[in-house]
Structures are given as structure tokens and as C-alpha cells.
């Protein structure tokens, strides 16, 4: 059991050291992560909406184009 505690402590210290190197935990870093996640979400939403509207346009065109051409 003591070995497990030492392994957990080693893992914690490793991740704490890496987070200090990368600046994770800084307020600016947190704001950057939130901003990046927001931009990513908006980009996915925009692309998804654009694809959905293009598909809907194609469906409407396929349904109504033959009736207009008659």
C-alpha cells in the first residue's frame, strides 16, 4: 500500500510540474482555454449549420424544381 501512495504522489508532482511549465492554472491560461473552446464550438456550430442549410436547400430544390419546370 505505501508504494501506491508514492506512485500517486509521483504522478501528482509530475503533472503539477508540467502544468507549471505550460502555464496551466494561470488566470490568463484559463481565459485562453475558455476562449479557444468557445471559438471551436462556434466554428463547429457554423459549419454544421452551413452543411444542414445546404442539404435543406438541395432537398427543396429537388422537390420543387420538377414541379416548376412542368
Describe the structure in your own words.
The protein is mainly alpha-helical and 70 residues long. The chain has one domain (2-69). 91% of the residues lie in helices and 0% in strands. It contains 2 helices and no strands. The N and C termini lie far apart (82 Å).
What would you say about this model in short?
Helices cover 91% and strands 0% of the residues. The protein is mainly α.
Structural class: mainly alpha
Report the count of strand segments. 0
Report the end-to-end length measured between terminal Cα atoms.
82 Å
Shape designation: rod-shaped
Query: H/E element string?
Result: HH
Mean pLDDT: 79
Radius of gyration: 26 Å
Number of helices: 2
Low-confidence runs: none
Amino acid at each position: 500500500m505505501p508504494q501506491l501512495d508514492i506512485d500517486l504522489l509521483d504522478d501528482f508532482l509530475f503533472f503539477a510540474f508540467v502544468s507549471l511549465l505550460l502555464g496551466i492554472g494561470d488566470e490568463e491560461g484559463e481565459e485562453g482555454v475558455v476562449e479557444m473552446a468557445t471559438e471551436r464550438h462556434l466554428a463547429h456550430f457554423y459549419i454544421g449549420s452551413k452543411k444542414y442549410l445546404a442539404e435543406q436547400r438541395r432537398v427543396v430544390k429537388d422537390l420543387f424544381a420538377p414541379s416548376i419546370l412542368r
